[in-house]
Amino acid sequence: MVKNTPWTPEDGAGETPKMARAALFLPEASDYIGSSPAESKSLAQPVTTSPFVQGLIQEAQHHHLPISVGIHEPSSDPTSSRIKNTLIYITATGQITQRYQKLHLFDLDIPDGPTMRESDIIEPGREILPPFPTPVGKVGSQICFDLRFPEPALALKRQGAEILLYPSAFMPETGAAHWMALLRARAIESESYVFAAAQVGWHNAKRRSYGHGVVIDPWGKVVVELGGEGTGEVEVGFVDVDLEKVERTRKMVPLLRRT
Ligand SMILES: O=C(O)CNC(=O)[C@H](CS)NC(=O)CCC(=O)C(=O)O
């Protein structure tokens, strides 16, 4: 595992086995963070016309690198006044093959503290996406606030997930109190890798994200942790995924076997 090693296109020259077995995981809402509900809604674009998504599709093809990325999309219901918060998976050939819509929305109300009503802007998803194969393992998708709910993580594990995704834009206040504990709990109880790519630093005058993007292994060990909101710097972490660790952990502590 190497932290913050710059990736160069040469690493991916041709169809080397290394690149063929890599994937990039980006945070929730990587396309934009709006400064108001109206702005968030007005910026949502279908993937077919979104310059952000189309750019990533080109990069995925160019580097033969699948990309998981959180974005906003217009509702499928033209009468809806809300948009979707989704996680899409772009294959190395540039196809969008998976689309998960955030199930749980962040409505926070802390007296004299931060408040947030995501449900005013975002329309909730209704289903868990079956785990799907990627070059680094079988992936189950969740988004940010979903991480407070153990049930979908366990359901995804039972359906075969080896890696759980929690792309996020956590608040600094709740992040400091809960982020790492929740992520480690999800990894330990599901005996899966957890990949939590996270937004970091100021987005606009009002909004700041906690950062601390992490990868946690199935034993609960933090394998890589990036910087927090203090730095506000964008960082990339590199991790070698060892799927045998998933198998070994599940054998050592057999949580699903009935005796
Ligand atoms: O606003 C966007 O465009 C993208 N969405 C987000 O940033 C979402 C909703 S505000 N953030 C969270 O769910 C943070 C959860 C959190 O911080 C907690 O559970 O404590």
TrEMBL record:
The lineage of its organism: Eukaryota, Fungi, Dikarya, Ascomycota, Pezizomycotina. This is CN hydrolase domain-containing protein. It comes from Salinomyces thailandicus. InterPro entries: C-N_Hydrolase, C-N_Hydrolase_sf. Residues 1-243 form the CN hydrolase domain. It comes from the Eukaryota. PANTHER family: DEAMINATED GLUTATHIONE AMIDASE (PTHR23088:SF27), NITRILASE-RELATED (PTHR23088).
